[in-house]
Design goal:
The chain has one domain. It is 66% helix and 9% strand. It contains 4 helices and 3 strands; from the N terminus they run αββααβα. It is elongated.
Length: 141
Amino acid sequence: MIQRIQTLYLFIVIILQSVLLSTGIAKYTDPVSNELMYKTIKTIKTMDLPLIAALTSFTALIPAISMFLYKKRILQMRFNIFNSILLVALQGFIVYYIVQSKGLIFTVQSIFPVISLILSILAIRNIIKDELLIKSLHRLR
């Protein structure tokens, strides 16, 4: 299981989505100034937005389940395709929320779904390669 590269891809997706769940997706400056006239920077956490938090949780849970389905490659591939669709939806909701709320600034963590999507697609490609290799070995017998 660990020897296959797609397992590492899925593990990195789990880590990225877990980090996204525990950190913020956007920052804004607080308009209320203190006596020294310094503006404070506040962070909008993922857990403050229920829809984005739920999608982030699912996109971290699905690769964790999929990682242990290494003997059922077709099912593993379907899980990853579903996770890719959820990652696109998650990134769309993040961009929509930040664009609609004026004064918000993107953080580095807000592009984690894009990186996770790329890694998920790479995992799907390697799962397909494994499946084709297994089918070709069965033909030779």
